[in-house]
Amino acid sequence: MGSLEEGATNVVKTCMGVNSSDRIIIVTDRDTKEIADAIHTIAKSITDSRVFVLEDYASRPIKELPAEINKAISTANVTFWIAQSFKGELEMRSFFRTTALKYARHAHMPGVTKTVMEHGMCVDYNLVYKKTMKVYEIIKNVSNIHVQSQDGTSVDLKFDKNWKWIPSHGIFHKKGDWGNLPDGEVFTTPNSVKGTIIVSELGDWFTKKYGYLNDKISLEIKNSRIDLDNIQCSNTLLKTELLQYLNTDENSNKASEFAIPTNFSLMNLPLIGSMLQDEKARVHIAFGDPYGTKTNANWKSRTHVDCILEKCDITADGKKIMKLGELFID
């Protein structure tokens, strides 16, 4: 485990490659300002950096990006989103990211905590880059994947050759580059998904509210969609809120992402109940928006919820590449 300062330095200097010609804006909130301030301190030692606190403009949840922040985006070529996730804010957060990418490279850190900065952000990102690219080369032309686990996950996925696999390695040095930090995964949008998944953690605002799920959720997937009539969840409130979420729009329950973790420094550690870090340490499948600007998938959704799967075996085109969560790569 490292320190907040070490993690912030890694974010600014290694992952984002900030230099004296850059102009930076950081969007944060009161709960996360300690982290934003640490990153701001490193950034402003190199170049101009400004911080915007969401609660200075409106009460949470905020449905539309505050006008002053929106106006500031075009002045920056490096942007950061460093704030907690609230129910109903995904569209606003996504708007900031897509707008920023017209001008900048972007570090997306929704739900980041000090623990995440001390763990997931204190790894060697040059090594994460190398490992991620190795996994990408192995997986980029795969047609079929089977995932199973001892706790009951058994799911088959097929892939469209026109939809791209994305190596997300945490090094964002060019305009238009972006990813979540901490990083370390290779992902795409599956064309077809069927089977059962056993979920240990849910993304978006569910992570902050529920954390790691000791009582797992069982989801049946038919024709790439969660069977909303067959969700097995012992927590009545969570089940109700998840059903509401998955009914947000016509694609909210549609499988939109399959990701293989590549942050090897985290993969043998316990999950910490933070999706931002945990999805870089475990296999996950998401439902909702497919990040089509990256993968080329041809639909959209106003939601995106990741589902963490534990101790998975992965067989890709008949070849086993993961056993009990451990990847086999040369």
What kind of sheet is the major sheet? 8 strands, antiparallel
Bulk shape: globular
- The domain count comes to 2
- Going by helix content, strand content and strand pairing, the class is alpha+beta
Strand content of the residues, in percent? 25-35%
Helix amount: 25-40%
Mean pLDDT value: 96
Low-confidence stretches: none
Tally of extended strands?
A: 19
The arrangement of helices and strands along the chain is HEHEHEHEHHEEEEEEEHEEHEHEHEEEE
Helix segment tally: 10
Determine Rg (CA atoms, Å). 19 Å
CA-CA gap between termini: 27 Å
Reading side by side through the largest sheet, how are the strands ordered? 13-12-10-6-5-17-18-19
Task: Describe it.
This protein is of the alpha+beta class. It has two domains: 4-121, Thermophilic metalloprotease-like, CATH 3.40.1830.10; 124-327, no CATH class. The protein is built from ten helices and 19 strands. It has helices spanning 4-15, 33-44, 67-73, 90-100, 114-118, 125-139, 205-210, 236-246, 275-278, 292-295; strands spanning 23-28, 48-53, 78-82, 105-108, 144-149, 154-158, 166-168, 178-180, 185-188, 192-199, 201-202, 217-222, 225-226, 255-261, 283-288, 304-309, 312-316, 319-323, 326-327. Strand 5 and strand 6 form a beta hairpin. Helix 1 crosses helix 2.
